Amino acid sequence: MMETYEVLRRPIVTEKTTMQSEQGIYTFEVDRRANKLQVKEAVEKGFGVEVVSVNIINMPGKPRRWGRRVSRTPSWKKAIVKLAEGQRIEFFEGV
């Protein structure tokens, strides 16, 4: 069983996710072993908010070249978290 602080890796901050945060939707990179319930619990404990839904996407690694050698970046897991109406995560404000 993973600890709560091990589930969330980092927030994903892009133009799209910044616009979604205005509607209460936030995106995180999470541990590959984490499931939806663990992500929900980690966000609720970590930021003191109420989570309505969690969607999880497995992001495959991409091929990258270093000279002639071709390798892959590691695969990772992304979680899209929707908060209850009117709630915000202050951590994302001003980013």
What would your notes on this structure say?
- The protein has 95 residues and is of the alpha+beta class.
- The chain has a single domain (8-85), classed as RRM (RNA recognition motif) domain (Alpha-Beta Plaits).
- The protein has three helices and six strands; from the N terminus they run H-E-H-E-H-E-E-E-E.
- The strands form two sheets. Strands 1-2-6-3 form a four-stranded antiparallel beta sheet.
- A hairpin with a 2-residue loop joins strand 4 and strand 5.
- The longest helix has 12 residues, at 36-47.
- The radius of gyration is 15 Å and the shape is globular.
- The N and C termini lie far apart (32 Å).
- The mean pLDDT is 92.
Detail the topology: elements first, then pairings.
Blueprint: H1 4-7, E1 8-11, H2 15-21, E2 25-30, H3 36-47, E3 51-59, E4 63-66, E5 69-72, E6 76-83
Antiparallel strand pairs: 1-2, 2-6, 3-6, 4-5
